[in-house]
Amino acid sequence: MNKILIITHTADNFSIEKVTEYIEKNNCEVIRFDVDVYPLQNKLSTIFQDGEWISYLETPETKHRLDDISAIWYRRAYNIGKGLKEEMDSKFYGAAMGEIRNTLFGFFESVDAYSLGKPSIYRRLDSKEEQLKIADKLGLTIPATCLTNNPDEARKFILKHQNVVAKMQTGFAIYENGVENVVFTNVVGEDKLEELDSLLYCPMQFQQMIQKKKELRITIVGRDVYAFEIDSQQSEDAKVDWRKDGVNLIDKWNRTELPADVESKLLELLDMYNVDYGAIDMIVSPEDEYYFIEINAAGEFFWLDNLTEGNLISKSIADVLCDKAPRRNNEVMA
């Protein structure tokens, strides 16, 4: 029986269970590695001796051999080393966490099996600049964009395009009094020009503001494309960034079809990155122009999966992992 290793954490959502269910229907075994209980509860070992590489994962319940897995799903790696800080001398904590991350990511990268996601892939896809350049090269339409820490360049861009939004390139959050405040996309007008001097300390991404007929979230798994649309303008809070009112809009997304040329270019985008999963954000203008905004290597899909009959996105993920559907070859030694 083929073994599928899922990298996640104990607080992940129910999508893990749905994918696991479909993997088991494909007669494959699931091994779950919750990284937040590594290293205090889970133990990972890789040994080379007598001409053979062997890897083991020991959980409180059992011991798994990992060198013979057939595929790995790098779903999430949140809260690695949770609880460790309270268990050891603080002067060793930073160095220990460095070794922990290096060991984990080194193992994930070196597994000689098909991988749906990898730390290195996530790091590469963190570059919004590369995404936009590739999308533009493929013929996708993108908004006018300025990435800078130069206040003067930002001011010139804003004055030229008038309607401009500012966004961070990462999951940027400000922590104050123990409270996380996520920085969403915001409109920047001429009245904000004097506030741009702070760009010297932290670059930002500015884009021409595209008027929205609808917003799209497109989840691609292998060659399967799941496109959903929403009229984000129905909510005052969601007009600039639908995530600000995401909870209230969660069941208002509708399945839609993409123009054939747009779908083809998005599949080509995944070919360029050699990945089998991507959550893509696009905007459709009132003139029916399709604007590529970004691709997320590990973007969430569970709320859209629930809107399909039988959780089809989960099924596609399971089929790709179990080699029951077309997939891009990314094995280390292939």
Automatic annotation (TrEMBL):
PANTHER family referenced in this protein's UniProt entry, alphabetically: BETA-CITRYLGLUTAMATE SYNTHASE B-RELATED, RIBOSOMAL PROTEIN S6 MODIFICATION PROTEIN
Its protein name is MvdD family ATP-grasp ribosomal peptide maturase
Q: Which NCBIfam families match?
A: ATPgraspMvdD
| InterPro entries, per database record | ATP_grasp_rbs_pep_matu_MvdD, MvdD-like_ATPgrasp
Cite the Pfam families for this sequence: ATPgraspMvdD
Residues of the MvdD-like pre-ATP grasp domain? 3-117
Originating species? Chryseobacterium candidae
